[in-house]
Specification:
InterPro entries: c-mor_Regulatory_Protein, Homeodomain-like_sf, Mor_transcription_activator, YraL-like. The chain is mainly α and 91 residues long. The chain has five helices and no strands.
Amino acid sequence: MRYEKAENILPNNIIELIQDYIDGGYIYIPRKDENKKSWGENTETKRQLEARDKEIFSKYSSGVSVKILCEEYFLTESSIRRIIRNQKKYG
């Protein structure tokens, strides 16, 4: 998100109308629904987490214990169990 000076992008009558509601404050203008991006769309994070989760499930399926997976991936037992459950359901 970046800040823009209202004077540089809005007509004076719009600025005056907004000032009736918030004079000198900050206001957030949300994106249009059709321009919104889903979480992880701009980065590789989502893809990396999906790959990690598949790897965890594969190791679990091969006999690696939840405790060992916790230590290896620095996750809590409940997180590992949630990943396993989700991989069984959707993976």
